[in-house]
Amino acid sequence: xxxxxxxxxxxxxxxxxxxxxxxxxxxxxxxxxxxxxxxxxxxxxxxxxxxxxxxxxxxxxxxxxxxxxxxxxxxxxxxxxxxxxxxxxxxxxxxxxxxxxxxxxxxx
Amino acid sequence: xxxxxxxxxxxxxxxxxxxxxxxxxxxxxxxxxxxxxxxxxxxxxxxxxxxxxxxxxxxxxxxxxxxxxxxxxxxxxxxxxxxxxxxxxxxxxxxxxxxxxxxxxxxxxxxxxx
Lengths: 108, 114
What we know:
The complex is a heterodimer of chains A (108) and B (114).
Chain A: E1 9-13, E2 18-23, E3 32-38, E4 45-50, E5 53-56, E6 61-64, E7 70-75, E8 84-91, E9 102-107
Parallel strand pairs in A: 1-9
Antiparallel strand pairs in A: 2-7, 3-4, 3-8, 5-6, 6-7, 8-9
Chain B: E1 4-7, E2 10-13, E3 19-25, E4 31-37, E5 43-50, E6 56-57, E7 68-72, E8 75-80, E9 89-96, E10 103-105, E11 109-113
Parallel strand pairs in B: 2-11
Antiparallel strand pairs in B: 1-3, 3-8, 4-5, 4-9, 5-6, 7-8, 9-10, 9-11
């Protein structure tokens, strides 16, 4: 399984764009890249998933370079309610292992 | 997406006893997953439960300590047996959605062992 590396924490301010990068040097051909968000006392919530290039939904964008050894979750114009832990997972959707995650704190 | 009802949401148990956690899904799913999340930590996969077969446990987790039932395609239970304070944690169940839709998680069960 591809191991993922993310920053432990990040700080931002309301209205800014936040980019969280995840490294996954050993990603396999069949692996997808998936990001989850977790608030305190809740289960993780699916944000976005991609395989290559760029994926965008109503919540975020996911940028994946051609070599797929890293990915970047982009959150546009964050608000205080985006304060959470963000997890990057790499796998074939049959085996989801969580890394340490990035604790994002959005300040007013 | 699937909706998962997980019970109980929290419990306080005496050491040496057991707690059974239930997860009910509003749609049929092949695979259900059980995770543990210790305070301030990430999630650790305990086991994968397929209907009609034995659960597959991850390294460090054994069936005697964490027996799992999967009687049908919408329901599963995880029992944490012979409780000790080290078992105090949040336990979550999860199901896989479509190929590109990731996983849905229950709201978790916060277990405190005293």
